[in-house]
Structure formats: C-alpha cells, structure tokens
Amino acid sequence: MSNNEQAPQNPENEAAAGAADAATDSSEASLQAQLADLQARHAEVSDAYLRAKAEAENTRRRAEDEMAKARKFAIESFAESLVPVKDSLEAAIAIQNASNEQLLEGVHATLRQLAQALERNKVVEVNPAAGSKFDPHQHQAISVVPADQEANTVVAVLQKGYLIAERVLRPALVTVAAPK
What we know:
Layout: H1 11-73, H2 76-94, H3 100-120, E1 123-126, E2 139-145, E3 154-159, E4 161-164, E5 167-170, E6 172-177
C-alpha cells in the first residue's frame, strides 16, 4: 500500500469515534449549561449583596442622622420647662413697688415652677434625712462630727444633691456622724 492509499476504516471504529464525539458534545453542552446557570446565580448573589450593602449603609446613615438630631435637640424639652420660670423672674423684677410679702410670694411661686420643671425632666432631689445611712454614691461627706447617733449616718445636709434618671448630677453635701 502506498501512502496515498488509505486502509479502509473499520465501521466499528467509526461508530465508536462517533459515539465518543456525541458524548463529548453532550458533556460540553452540559458544562455550558452549568456555566450559564452558575453565572446567573453569581449575578443574582452579587446583586443581592450590593442591595444588602446599600441597605446597611442607608440604615447606618439614618441612625447617625437620628443620633445627631437627638444630641442637638435633647435639651429642648428641658429648655421649654425653664422658660416659664424665667418669665416669672422677669415679671417679679418688673414690679417697681412690690412689698416684701409680694416678693416672697412670687419667689415661692417661681420656686414651685422650677421644682415642677425639674421633676418633669426627671431631675430628682437628694436630701437625706438626719440619721439616714451615708451613701457615698449619692452623698459627699464634708466633715465627720461627733454626734449622738449611729456612726456613718447623716447628721446634717449642707447642700441638696440631684439625680437625673438615677444618675448623680451633684452629690448632696453632708456632715457624717463619727464612730464612737
């Protein structure tokens, strides 16, 4: 046989080669389908991720804005409560020939207004009674004095203290009974 002549091919070999090509084509088509499916899923997940990231950023930004507004306007309610007290003081000053009794009555009324304003804004007086136990969280001992009462108890209050929502704004200044 010469090089130009080819040996007749075996039909069985041709069928096997055709089956292999068909299997390769179907495997390739299957891989293409899987690739397309994975690309679609990737696009979906990527889109969902970007949306979630944007939503988280918007939520963070809204929370920051709300915090800034809360800080800015936190004192507004307290200021609204104090404006009538200022008005009362200005009205008292405006009276030219007020008697001592009138002035004292006006001061008491203004003090009641101030107490109500503080109460509305959760500012509570700390005014321990004589003989009550000394509390270092709410009281500040100015001196220790000998007294006819149990040691470590309040003898006298020199200046009232104040709490805001159970947090000490100013401790009460007290004298405390010395140990016997």
